[in-house]
Amino acid sequence: QKAAVDSETEKAKNAIDNSTTADAIQSAGETGQTSVKDQYKPGMSLDDQKAAKKAEIDAIANDTKTAIDNDPTLTAEEKATQKAAVDSETEKAKNAIDNSTTADAIQSAGDKGRILVKNQYKPGTSLDDPKEAKKPINDSVTNDAKSVPNTNIENKSRKSKNNLGYSTLPSTGTNQTIWPNFWGMVLLTLSASLLFPYRKSKTVIQKNNSLEK
Question: Residue ranges of the domains in the chain?
Fold first, then answer.
């Protein structure tokens, strides 16, 4: 507006200089005064400017939170954290606007607030990157699992075997019947060895009794 005032002032002076009569000078002066004054156009009231700037900040905040919600690379926790930061910066920007006392201060507070609100949205890592990052972990787990010794096999190999090839009684399979049969034969042999002398002595006694008769 001040540049326009300077321009109209220069025009009015030139018109006056080019006037050749008193009436022309008077007319050029009056026309110039009106043109110069008309360059002042009162701006929007400070309250209206503040309201407009705060509305802009709210709109930017909503757009930013929508972008955060629609980002598939962010976790729910990350989205909540970023949206909370958006709300915080929005509140700060609106307070700065309210505390401004000139149109320039209102404009500056609005511009800074808009940038700070937008900057709270930080896109997450590409979905392919976490997958690639987890592959070495999965490979490591697989290798660790493969390196775990089979304790059952090792324990069996460390056991000393008896004549039948078992350190303990087998619990299943064909060999399960060998042990009962084996021990049965042992018991039968022991019983026979104990009973045979008894039966023999009994027979001798009976024979002697018959001779005495």
Answer: 2-37, 46-118
